[in-house]
Task: inverse folding
């Protein structure tokens, strides 16, 4: 449905977006992940028409739209800071795009009521924006974005300013809202957990380049480069026979040594010293250091060792990513 070909965005001599090719199917949510400043937001703004292209094309439903004015594109854009109108009530904010499209008043009221119910804010139409919590304001912003029935919504880190519990709740709700309105979406985030939770596919951007796109499980298990592995949160890069390997965070089990005589015990890939243990709820994150001085981090569902333990590190070969 949406096709980007060789898209380039420049700021002076800097290429913020560097020859990006991307497709989005109807009803699909693509999560675009990458570090701050990698070009994710610039790409969204180019699709929305807020940044001019220095090269390439944007096609929607088989029609070029890169020269179409932003307000004429059937595309919605939602920012992290909500950008709600303080002088309008909730209903007035949701109806803004409908008024711009000159919907008849009764039809506007019906659509506003439908969207507020969809985002869990039925009856909030007369509320002032200043009285809303952060999560409620975010829902109003989403309803306003969806109200005109865009073909695609572009979500620019919309959950980044929310606290953890509220963000997780909205991560659960957002796919249902998009599915109910049959809206395709590109969701930009720097949080890989958020990307994996929301995306039907994951795209990884670094330095303006789109390095990999694919299903979440595939991208996680088979990153195409060390750059992609780092963005996805893989931290354990080791050299084996001169070639880099990524040992996934769930790749290790430990055997605790009772004394130095256990060093070299059969079955351990190497022996390490535990430096830090952090409880993560369903697992513990264990930081260890090898005798060569390299720090590695693993998530363990088994009973973790304690700080200072000398442990044998056993690596599951099925969880090794060879690059």
Result:
């Amino acid at each position: 449905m949406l096709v980007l070909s060789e898209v380039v965005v420049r700021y002076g001599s800097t290429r913020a977006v560097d020859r990006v090719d991307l497709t989005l199917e109807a009803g699909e949510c693509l999560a675009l992940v990458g570090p701050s400043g990698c070009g994710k937001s610039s790409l969204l703004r180019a699709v929305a028409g807020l940044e001019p292209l220095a090269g390439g094309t944007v096609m929607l439903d088989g029609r070029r739209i890169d020269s179409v004015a932003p307000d004429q594109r059937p595309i919605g854009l939602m920012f992290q800071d909500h950008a709600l109108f303080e002088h309008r009530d909730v209903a007035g904010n949701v109806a803004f795009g409908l008024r711009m499209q000159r919907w008849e008043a009764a039809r506007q009221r019906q659509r506003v009521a439908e969207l507020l119910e969809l985002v869990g804010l039925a009856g909030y139409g007369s509320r002032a924006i200043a009285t809303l919590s952060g999560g409620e304001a975010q829902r109003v912003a989403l309803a306003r974005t969806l109200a005109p029935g865009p073909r695609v919504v572009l979500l620019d880190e919309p959950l980044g300013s929310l606290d953890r519990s509220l963000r997780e709740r909205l991560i659960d709700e957002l796919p249902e809202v998009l599915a109910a309105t049959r809206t395709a979406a590109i969701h930009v985030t720097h949080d890989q957990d958020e990307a994996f939770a929301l995306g039907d596919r994951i795209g990884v951007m670094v330095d303006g380049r789109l390095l990999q796109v694919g299903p979440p499980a595939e991208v996680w298990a088979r990153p195409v480069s060390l750059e992609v592995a780092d963005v996805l949160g893989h931290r354990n890069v080791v050299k084996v026979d001169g070639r880099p390997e990524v040992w996934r965070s769930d790749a290790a089990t430990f055997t605790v040594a009772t004394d130095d005589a256990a060093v070299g015990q059969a079955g351990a890939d190497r022996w390490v010293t535990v430096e830090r243990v952090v409880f993560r709820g369903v697992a513990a994150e264990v930081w260890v250091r090898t005798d060569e001085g390299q720090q590695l981090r693993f998530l363990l569902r088994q009973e973790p060792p304690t700080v200072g333990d000398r442990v044998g590190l056993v690596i599951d070969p099925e969880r090794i990513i060879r690059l």
Summary: Residues 260-265 have pLDDT under 50 and may be disordered. The two ends are 33 Å apart (CA to CA). The chain is about 25% helix and 35% strand. Residues 2-228 form a domain with the Rossmann fold fold (CATH 3.40.50.300).
